[in-house]
Write a structure and sequence with these properties.
Elements (H helix, E strand, L loop, with lengths): L3 H15 L14 E5 L3 H15 L5 E5 L1 H9 L6 E3 L3 H9 L9 E5 L2 E6 L14 H5 L4 E4 L5 H12 L3 H4 L3 E4 L2 H9 L5 E5 H6 L3 E6 L9 E6 L7 H9 L5 H6 L3 E6 L4
Parallel strand pairs: 1-2, 1-3, 6-7, 6-8
Antiparallel strand pairs: 3-10, 4-10, 4-11, 5-8, 5-9
Helix pairs in contact: 1-8, 3-4
Amino acid sequence: MFKRRTLLGLGLAFTLGLVPAFDGARAQPKELVIFAAASMKNALDEAAANWVKETGKPAPKISYAASNTLAKQIENGAPADIFVSADLDWMDYAAGKNLIKPDTRVSLLANRIVLVGAKDSTAKIDLKPGADIAGALGAGRLAMGNVDSVPAGKYGKAALEKLGAWDKVKDKLAQADNVRAALLLVSRGEAPLGIVYATDAAADPQVKVVATFPEDSHPPIVYPVAVTKDSANPDAQAFLTYLRGAAAKPVFEKQGFTVLNKAASSS
């Protein structure tokens, strides 16, 4: 049985454990500071480690959380050099608040959303119009990112609405502060099913993909990246260029991302 206290604990533990405290000042530390969507963790950790080996630069300090949380942190004065969002909306928000350097913004990656269960789950669901997700949940809840703010949650809600399943599941949700917290609910058996990115599912051996949402059931999942407006770190543009290069491409593809690497205009 899902417990609300567990959900809040997971969300807070994930977010507060990875997003550093700050005092509102924009003083830039020596190391590169990156704020990235939670679903980027495995791929970006590896890409950053490879960059350090190749360049001898100090290891970047990477903070992971939901894109909305990170955008708000930057707006409130967090000293980040690079922002990686899991959707266009929150990068547009940052751009609208003059928090990024527009000429550095690119659409770096694409992803998919999937329905996951525990690794021993016997659930079988065909994600087509009329899919009975509520029936598959039974007395359990559907884990997903907050549907009003977290990109994975917004994509998930859009897909559920397109498939005609939203009305039956909207009162059976376990909404988390970020997609990795939602994944953890399924991985730990707190929720029988969850909606996460395909890359998240691939990163956790305790879950399996039950079904993949049709690409036309939700807006395209695009990860834009940009250097922040107040960054004075000369390594920021260099690292962004590295992420767009041939060395980083196989790292992203291994984790299940599709590399886009193109100039990104606002949505």
